[in-house]
Amino acid sequence: MQKSISIKITSKKLNLQECYDFVHDASCGGIALFVGTVRNKTQEKEVTLLDFSTYKSMAIKEIEKIANEALKKYDILKIAIHHAEGELKIGEIPVIIAVSSPHRKVSFTACQFAIDTLKETVPIWKKEHFIDGEIWVNSTP
Hints:
Helix content is 31%, strand content 39%.
């Protein structure tokens, strides 16, 4: 991986400060952060926890593709894409994306591109647990 890319898939708690620190650079005037959190309801059903499963080696390769495409497509300096695996409780963080660029608008656009593409292409599956059962949700975090 390049110095401009940080990718992680882990069962440990994600660290927002780690992502911010990685992308921070004196040449950049904008840092955009996306932090996905586990919410307590989905379509009016009470969620108790989420369980994320990955095909880790392939997921990392796909995330690398997203990061490299973002670097080519947008005028960004650095990008961090970190995703959790395993069981997460309400309020915990399954995904963090951080992007830095000289100008803020590009950071926002690249960050949105990264999360939208991750949800469409990366082999990460989510099982939602409810009080009365559980369901697998398509391969989106």
